[in-house]
Write a structure and sequence with these properties.
Elements (H helix, E strand, L loop, with lengths): L1 E4 L4 E5 L5 E7 L1 E5 L5 E5 L3 E4 L4 E6 L3 E7 L7 H6 L11
Antiparallel strand pairs: 1-8, 2-7, 3-6, 3-8, 4-5, 4-7
């Protein structure tokens, strides 16, 4: 699933039952997952939330993201639809 965030927009994520792989296609994302550390995810980089882990992210500039359940092959669109990664509200690109 792909979504976009405008500068300053927030998104709450959860790894759900299978984990969540987040890939930044454009822009820069600030992410914190409650471990006392902050993470910057820049264009071309990925970040993985493990099963049950949650995080909050903010777009430091307009960003496009790709999210999928961890362990799901990216080309398999039916697998993505069958295993949602968690409660998030992406906006269509």
């Amino acid at each position: 699933m792909e979504c976009s965030l405008g500068k300053g927009e927030l998104l709450s994520l959860t790894g759900g039952a299978h984990g969540l792989m987040l890939r930044c296609l454009t822009g820069t994302i600030w992410l914190t997952k409650g471990d006392g550390r902050d993470y910057l995810v820049r264009r071309g980089n990925s970040f993985e939330l493990t099963r049950g882990e949650s995080a909050l992210m903010e777009a430091l500039e307009a960003a496009e993201l790709q999210m999928r359940a961890a362990g799901v092959i990216q080309e398999s669109r039916s697998a993505l639809a069958a295993q949602p990664a968690g409660p998030f509200l992406p906006r269509p690109l």
